[in-house]
Amino acid sequence: MKDPFGCHHSKVGVYVYEDNSVRIVISTANLYYEDWNHYNQGLWVSPVCPKLPEGSTEKDGESPTGFKEHFLKYLQTYNLGILKEWIEYVKNADFSQVKVALVYSAPGKYYPNSNGNHLHRVASLLSKYCNLPKKMTPDSEGPLSWGIMAQASSIGSMGKTPAEWLRGNLLRSLASHKQSPLPSNSPATISIVYPSVDNVANGYFGLKSGGCLPYSKATNDKQKWLQTYMHQWVANAKNRTRAMPHIKSYCR
């Protein structure tokens, strides 16, 4: 791997059936008991993707969103011989019924308009498909000010100020829409949902519940400004407040 600090952190399953049809499963859970039984997780399961007719090419059976192309690109970034067989199964499958877009990331440096993944692809997709409604009244703030909720299970270094990454990259990408791709000064706010120490202590497994929530004190001490953006994890309506979140979700 070229990047000594990079890693593939995805959780992906490629399932091949007796008739050579394929199903893709993408989750937020690692492959061990605690992740699947103790924490809040997210799971996406594709429809069954049948094998293409003989003589088809890998460009056949594409999803309306380009899912197949991007999934193949992601698998190829591993550059591992053991994956060649699985890549062939994907190439020979019909993904035309897959209606979601795939955004993948792999270790490395990426720039807008270069290879279409990472946060840059999120911004690109929102700029293409997100059409915000107009103001209801001339005096209303309107949808441009709609806030963004970001929820994750780990937090890293974001810089000395919100402008360095949180607002300069993440918010700017998530606030993109058809009328304003990559807005440089969005009126939208961003809120980060992350369990507090009390949330963890009151979890089903006490402080051990924090095992899935890496955020070091050293990193926190360098970005005290982040506290003003943070909100506790509460899911009383679903009786999940005491189950810590390993899921990652973003909405507006």
TrEMBL record:
Substrate binds at K11, K248. It comes from the Eukaryota. The active site is at H9, H246. It is found in: Nucleus. Pfam families: Tyr-DNA_phospho. InterPro entries: Tdp1. Keywords: DNA damage, DNA repair, Exonuclease, Hydrolase, Nuclease, Nucleus. GO terms for molecular function: 3'-tyrosyl-DNA phosphodiesterase activity; double-stranded DNA binding; exonuclease activity; single-stranded DNA binding. One of its GO terms (cellular component) is nucleus. GO terms for biological process: DNA repair. PANTHER family: TYROSYL-DNA PHOSPHODIESTERASE 1 (PTHR12415). Belongs to the tyrosyl-DNA phosphodiesterase family. This is Uncharacterized protein. It comes from Rhynchophorus ferrugineus.
